[in-house]
Write a structure and sequence with these properties.
Protein name: DUF5723 domain-containing protein
Organism: Fibrella forsythiae
Mean pLDDT: 84
Radius of gyration: 29 Å
Largest sheet: 26 strands, antiparallel, barrel
Helix content: under 10%
Shape: globular
Number of helices: 3
Number of strands: 29
Strand content: over 45%
Structural class: mainly beta
Low-confidence stretches: 1-38, 98-105
Length: 579
């Protein structure tokens, strides 16, 4: 529970900047870099625009257990309020899921801006860099200032709310409620430059409040953490921006368990940070970075990317990192014959086990080639090739097992041929798409279980009739998968019909897909999926009613529990309004 003083500080940070901005903008008291008084007088005092939508869904299954809730609803909106040129976009999402999860989906936020001043209030998602504040959702307040070439930013708020553990399962809707400490944090940015040429210095700090919930049990494996991450992000160009550089670097100190207490003597390399954060035997320091250089010339471009992220790198301001990786990628592109032929490729190498503590080191090789050509008017050809290889070598040698080592090469080829013909009243498109993919396991001990071959093909024709306001698409697909000594084949047609009625007041859509399955040449059953939708537009309002029926039948009931015939029905009603 927040103390009165902390609650006061939070409200002051959240509301005071907004009040100052609104009053100052209406009175015209911004400095010279702001909006002038004459401009304010020519604007509407207040205007509201945006959209609201509400939806209901119904679900029923026969033959199998329900795979979703029988009934659900949602309400969402994106209103935008403008007061004397100050734009305040709001977002709102409310649904019955709030009653089912520990972290709410009901979030309200606003980011009003006025020229070079922008505020963030409520639930917001902000990205300063990939390795510091990288898109984590928080509830709080922030400001971004960009007068001239100066780039300033600061945010403060709650990055995770307190959720107490429910070991006794007192709420029967949950099997187990995993606890979460309240996490408070802030981030700052100091930079200089324009949007395309700049350098930023970044700081992020977050701390879990140990007393925000009762001490969790060992079962939860949850401990309070503290994190400080710093970063440098820069983007700049040379030779009239023909050569572009993009750099993103980060360093993070993470204490995984604040309950261990302060033990600075156990981490001498971090001792100088002891006055800024809690350090003990669970504290670690990580680095990460990525950089790219791209050179553009008349016939194409060449790009080189490098990335290195330490094992276990983590910033509490970001949700996910691909860590323990070092990789280099080269991407060339060529445009020939006055742009009628484009060739692009890529080649990359990567590996893990950067700290040499894993039993095996995994290396990856990725290469690809794409060719697009305009053969004649309306006739286009596209070809693709890709190769992905994974191999493992000994890391900690006494723990490495050759018989379980991964060594796989995945090769795929693809092509598409399309012809389009247009007249003043109609448009016709005929296309053929095919692909082949082979996964080859180089390990003789596992290849019989993991190798596979996939063949896919699709032929489609589409028609657009402008006088009738009618669209139609017919297709036929083929898919064959061979793996573990078995072959699965699926073929079937599909159709989609759509038409507008009464000058666009109504739109009806009908779609149907059927698939016939075989396994090792023997019939395995069919699947049919049919949907119908009616959309009604009345000025700024829309009403959509939809239904969908899925029918699955097996050729034989080999297993009454696993292979069961079933049908599923889904119905929906959606209302939306723009204002």
């Amino acid at each position: 529970m927040s103390t009165p003083s902390s609650l006061y500080r939070f409200c002051r940070l959240s509301l005071l900047p907004l009040i100052v901005l609104l009053v100052a903008s209406m009175l015209g008291t911004f400095p010279a870099a702001g909006q002038d008084v004459q401009g304010l007088r020519n604007q509407k005092p207040i205007s509201i625009r945006g959209s609201l939508s509400a939806g209901l869904t119904y679900y029923q299954a026969n033959g199998i257990a329900n795979r979703r809730q029988p009934f659900s609803w949602y309400l969402s909106g994106a209103p935008v309020i403008t007061i004397y040129g100050v734009v305040m976009p709001f977002s709102l999402v409310v649904s019955e899921q709030e009653r089912r999860f520990s972290q709410p989906f009901n979030q309200y936020g606003v980011s009003p801006y006025y020229k070079w001043v922008k505020l963030h209030l409520g639930y917001r998602t902000i990205r300063f860099s990939n390795y510091t504040l990288g898109g984590a959702n928080f509830l709080g307040a922030g400001v971004e200032l960009n007068p001239g070439k100066l780039r300033l930013g600061f945010v403060y708020g709650q990055f995770s709310r307190a959720v107490a553990e429910d070991e006794a399962n007192s709420d029967l809707r949950y099997r187990y409620v995993r606890p979460t400490y309240q996490r408070l944090g802030y981030a700052a940015r100091l930079g200089y430059g324009k949007q395309t040429d700049y350098v930023d210095l970044l700081l992020f700090k977050a701390t879990d409040r140990m007393r925000s919930i009762p001490t969790p049990s060992r079962r939860s494996q949850i401990t309070p953490m503290e994190n400080v991450a710093v970063g440098l992000k820069s983007n700049f160009g040379l030779f009239r921006h023909k050569l572009l550089f993009d750099i993103d670097l980060g360093g993070s100190v993470l204490t995984r368990d604040l309950l261990l207490g302060i033990q600075n003597d156990q981490v001498p390399s971090l001792r100088q940070l002891g006055t800024f954060m809690w350090l003990n035997s669970s504290s670690s320091f990580f680095t990460a970075g990525q950089a790219s250089a791209r050179y553009a010339f008349k016939q194409g471009s060449l790009q080189v990317l490098y990335q290195r992220v330490d094992p276990d790198y983590q910033s509490l301001g970001s949700y996910y990192f691909q860590n323990d990786v070092e990789q280099v990628t080269v991407n060339p592109t060529l445009r020939l014959i006055k742009g009628q032929l484009t060739i692009s490729g890529s080649y990359g190498l990567s590996h893990d086990n950067l700290n040499h503590k894993r039993a095996a080191t995994t290396s990856r090789t990725v290469s690809g080639l794409t060719i697009n050509s305009l053969l004649a008017k309306g006739l286009n050809l596209g070809l693709t090739y890709s190769n992905f290889g994974v191999a493992q070598t000994a890391g900690v040698s006494d723990l490495f097992n050759d018989s379980l080592a991964v060594s796989v090469v995945n090769t795929s080829y693809g092509g598409n041929l399309s012809y389009a013909r247009a007249t003043p009243t109609s448009r016709h498109v005929l296309s053929l798409v095919a692909s082949y993919q082979n996964t080859s396991d180089q390990n003789q001990f596992t290849r019989s279980y993991t190798g596979s071959t996939n063949r896919l093909g699709a032929l489609s024709y589409s028609l657009v009739s402008l006088p009738l306001k009618f669209n139609a698409t017919a297709s036929f697909t083929y898919a064959a998968i061979a793996t573990a000594g078995r072959r699965f084949v699926t073929i079937g047609p599909g159709v989609n019909l759509s038409r507008e009625w009464h000058k666009g007041l109504f739109r009806t859509t009908l779609n149907h897909n059927s698939q016939w399955r075989t396994v090792d040449g023997q019939p395995d059953g069919t699947v049919a999926n049919t949907g119908f939708n009616v959309a009604i537009r009345m000025g700024m309002q829309t009403l959509s009613l939809g239904s969908n029926l899925l029918y699955n039948q097996y050729a034989f009931q080999a297993d009454g529990l696993t292979y069961r015939n079933f049908t599923e029905y889904r119905g929906s009603a959606t209302y939306g309004i723009r204002f």
